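Pasting as-is:
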Amino acid sequence: MQDSQTKYDCIRLDNQLCFPLYACAKEVVRKYRKPLEELGLTYTQYVVMMALWEHGTMTEGELGRLVHLDSGTLAPLLKRLEKQEMIKRTRPDRNERKLMISLTEQGESLKDKAVNVPPSMQGCIDLDRDELIQLKILLDKALKRMEEE
C-alpha cells in the first residue's frame, strides 16, 4: 500500500506548483472585474491596452508575443476592441500580410481612467511588500526561462 501511495504522490493537487499559480491567477483576474467594468474592458483586453499605451503602434504578431497570446485568442479580442473604437487595425499597402494595431483617440484617452486601476488593486494579494517584490522577480524569471525554451 505504501508503494502505491508514493507512486501517486506526484499527481496530488497539494504537491503541484502549477495549480496554486493557476488558482491565484484566476482569483486575481476575478478581482480585476469590478475596476475594469468601469473601463468597459476584460482583464485580457486591459493587458492588451496597457501594452499599446506603453509601446504604441505595433503588428499583431509583436503584440501577441508581448502579451503572450496566440493569434486565435488575440484576433477576436482585437475585433472586439475595434468595435468598441479603442483600437484600429490596418494593413500597410507595402505588406498586406501584416496587421498593424494602433490606439484610437478614444483608446488613448482611456489611459487616464486606467491609472485608477492599479491603486484599487493594492492589497489584492495579501503579502507584504518584500514578498510581492520577490514573487514578481521569481515569476518574471520563470517566464523568461520558459520563453527561451
